[in-house]
Amino acid sequence: MRTVTINSAGMTMQDVIDVARHNARVEISEQALAGMAATREHIEKLANGETPVYGISTGFGALANRHIAIEDRVQLQKSLVRSHAAGMGEPVEREVVRALMLLRLKTLCSGRTGARPLVAQTMADILNAGITPYVHEYGSLGCSGDLAPLAHCAMVLMGEGRAFGPATDGTLGTERPVADLLAEAGITPVELREKEGLALINGTDGMLGMAILAIADLNHLVDYADKIAAMSVEGLMGTDQVFRPELHEPLRPHPGQAKSAANMFAALKGSEIVASHRVGDSKVQDAYSLRCAPQVTGGLRDTIDYATVVATRELAAAVDNPIVLENGEVTSNGNFHGAPVAYILDFLAIPATDLGSMSERRTDRMLDQNRSSGLPPFLAADAGVDSGLMIAQYTQAGLVSENKRLAAPASVDSIPSSAMQEDHVSMGWHAGRKLRKVVDNLRMILAVELTAAARAVELRAPHQPSPISAELIARLRKVVPGMGTDRFLAPELAAAAELLRS
């Protein structure tokens, strides 16, 4: 099992994915532990002083002007976490919770929050034990950090709240009493001290974690999308000539477009189907959903590249308020505002939705006997008796329609909170939640196109598809049978979607 070592320099996106999805172990470097201990000395001095310092000896948010007596400051941190653990709704996915915990741990280890090394080590121990706090769907406005989600995680560090036990299949596991889960793992609950409650909840970790996971998924899906679109070109007796390199990078130098065009051109190389109608074809041009595929998929590629830049920058950040500077000064700031991450979450949803929309148009064309260049209606074995993939396209259209609604940006909305102290919020958590749904829907949309394109290509026999299409169809046929009389389609579509996840 891989081990991810956390130091003050941060981590990579792959580190986050490995811990969130593949249960990689976490260890904290000696350098990071020493840096945290040194910073903690500054916090202790301020805690014992009489000068009010936000997060150490004052209330929070709109209550920041309330000076808290020394004897009440431990209770202040406990009360902060308990009151902020106010989420509602269903539990979010295990991988999201693990990602946000790891990213909060990364910021603790930066030495800029003032938390003790003990707090960071306890969080690492919980991750390594496979314990997953119960984090609710609703509770974050994406400003002052993902407060409620992170507070539910902090509750588990305190030995309180709700949590799920270890699971190896990506599910949440079984909910059990937190005290029992910690005791079985040999973990002692932490009594939070000055600044530590705030340090555990004041970050953009949930939305960043969802961004990193979505980027990984979309990078995977765009490569499949190019191959599936090329297979649809074959099935619809289209041409490969519009994907030649001289028509892309030299004329319209978008890197993503050039990449997708190159992928499609390579995927069609050696296709007997494409070669069969190069001469004597009456069609002047293919439909946009075929001819312009690289422009749309390439646009998503370029958006992913930009989102990766933003996510990488955020990974290098130490997001907390107040923050401890190198000279020991503890100062307020606005870096907890999730706007930069919220924007990329919204940006990604738009081209991902449009890619799904174009995929559905190709599927519909393959099912329509008037536009499919001789394919049977709905790709049915005996049209009329059989309905073929008619209703699979309905499902695909429904998914596309839902994605169009989800593509509306969350980050343009703002609802003031905390008695107008927090009068502009990012809604980045919500942008992340809907992007996850868009990505899942896109996978299913592409799975329907893959199922249809494979049938269409096989109906072009005796002409053979390209080697790349043949290999993808062979993989599909291991889990989805070929064309025949109508049968229970839902399991086959689910299997095709799972193939695209692998």
UniProtKB/TrEMBL annotation:
Keywords: Histidine metabolism, Lyase. It comes from the Bacteria. One of its GO terms (cellular component) is cytoplasm. It is an enzyme of class 4 (lyase). GO terms for biological process: L-histidine catabolic process to glutamate and formamide; L-histidine catabolic process to glutamate and formate. Its main location: cytoplasm. It catalyses: L-histidine = trans-urocanate + NH4(+). Signal peptide: none annotated. Its EC number is 4.3.1.3. InterPro entries: Aromatic_Lyase, Fumarase/histidase_N, HutH, L-Aspartase-like, Phe/His_NH3-lyase_AS. GO terms for molecular function: histidine ammonia-lyase activity. Pathway: Amino-acid degradation; L-histidine degradation into L-glutamate; N-formimidoyl-L-glutamate from L-histidine: step 1/3. It is found in: Cytoplasm. Belongs to the PAL/histidase family. NCBIfam families: hutH, PRK09367.1. This is Histidine ammonia-lyase.
